[in-house]
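Below is a filled-in request sheet from our internal design queue. Each sheet records the structural input a requester submitted and the sequence that came back. We keep these sheets so that new team members can see what a complete request looks like end to end.

REQUESTER: design group, bay 2
PRIORITY: normal
MODE: inverse folding
CHAIN LENGTH: 71
BACKBONE (tokenized):
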């Protein structure tokens, strides 16, 4: 069992969640934080079942930071 970091974004019309450390695109959404998290967990399981160990990036992410910049 691997532990992945998940980013959950709150939008006006719900939540979007996606994992860090997987190759490809895995995104889920829900009306609540909990629903988006449950959906992304299901999507991650499917992604790993489909691609096996090739689904994971080569480097383990030790920490994740959220930063804000003005552009």
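RETURNED SEQUENCE:
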């Amino acid at each position: 069992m691997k532990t992945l970091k998940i980013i959950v974004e709150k939008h006006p019309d719900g939540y979007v969640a996606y994992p860090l450390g997987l190759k490809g695109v895995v995104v889920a959404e829900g009306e609540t934080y909990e629903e988006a998290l449950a959906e992304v967990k299901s999507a991650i399981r499917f992604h790993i079942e489909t691609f096996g160990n090739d689904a994971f990036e080569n480097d383990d992410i030790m920490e994740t930071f959220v930063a804000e910049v003005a552009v």
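SHEET NOTES:
- The two ends are 39 Å apart (CA to CA).
- Strands lie at 6-11, 14-19, 28-30.
FILED BY: M.R.
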